[in-house]
Amino acid sequence: LEGASSEAPLPPFEPPRSDVRARAMSSRVAMAWKQLASLTQWGRNYENGPTNAQSKLRLFGQAEDKLRVTLFRDNHAWCPYCQKVWLFLEEKQIPYRIAKITMRCYGDKERWYLKKVPNGMLPALELDGRMITESDEILAALETAFGPLGAPMRDIKPYRQLERQLFGAWCQWLCRPAPSAAEEARNQKEFEGVLARVDQALRATPGPFFLEDFSLADVIFIPYAERMVASLFYYKGFNLKQASPGLARWFEGLETRETYRGTQSDAHTHNHDLPPQMGGCYENGTPEQQRCKALVDQGPWEGLPDCGYPEPPDSVAEALARTLKYREDIINANCVKDKAKVEEALLCALTTLTGQACSVQDKEMAVALMYIRDRINVPRDMSIWAARRMRKALTQTAAAAGPVQAPPIPIDNRYDQQPTEFSRAGA
Fold this sequence. Notes:
By secondary structure, the protein is mainly α. The protein has helices at residues 20-23, 33-37, 80-92, 111-116, 135-146, 157-174, 181-203, 216-236, 240-243, 245-254, 258-263, 267-278, 287-298, 315-325, 327-332, 339-353, 363-373, 384-398; strands at 57-58, 69-74, 96-101, 124-127, 130-133. The protein has a 5-stranded mixed beta sheet with strand order 1-3-2-4-5, covered by helices on one side. Helix 14 packs across helix 18 (384-398). The longest helix has 23 residues, at 181-203. The N and C termini lie close together (6 Å).
């Protein structure tokens, strides 16, 4: 989703109504678009407000003509290396522009970007007219130009090495199929051994972070640690926060920072964007793993380990506003060909979201809702709690139609998420 300067409340708008036959397939009359739009005043100041995934420009109260930096990151906020640079810029409040680029796992690279960066690598950063790739080199250049984030890079090398060791053990366990139960157990034990060292490093400080205060050491760990929490729960039935009290406390500290919450994704998004990026993620097939997988895919989502902070008061308003903004694209991109059914089903789900129960009886309409549910992305589309509320409303609205099977989420690629399908509505 692309970003502009701010997200003002949607004006009352009543498009032509769809085929009235679709309305007969819901158990209650759903609200109209105009009525739903009147129920939310949610908005964001993209340039100067809290960290968010929709911005194209971040000023932090400074003049636009003083900008020195452009960040090139992936459109869907899936790229872990982009998240590192993004967090550094936000924490330091360095004004910057954002250009969002397609990852190859969900579409073709933009031609204009390949002229700038022929190998298409992400992230990339333009600083004073100079293009830089490789996230560590980008962070070094930003530190030189704008000062360190806490401790300088040269002082956190042991933490960088520890993060790479944890990453390697995670990849060995998650991304390589174990030929036997014994091999699976060895991979888990290897990961737990490195995790114990990470836990020890975190417990050595009085606060929640790797050093006395939040620093680049934390930024380096964030992207893959977040993905480890999600993926090991889903594919291995392993709760990382329970296994490491130090990391659990660390995440609690991170979630007090609006910079982190603005870049934070959720378990559902990560577990379905990782396989095409990592070359595969492998389940261990235990009953606990299957239980955890079902929770991520089907809910309830409230108790998942991906988020520990309380629900904010505007989660429903955010989910409603963001869905209304993209309603035409959501309807047109749906797998169900009868767009009148998709429209009425979505209206019914949004009615449920507002607290007025509305269900669909028609199986095609239920499939349309499950297709939408399975493709909500955090933070690209909305924040974690807004996504939880939206997924719950979609699931509840579809339940009366009985069991249905929407097209599965692809594993080898995510071409079902091509940005061109959602480029018309702006932010």
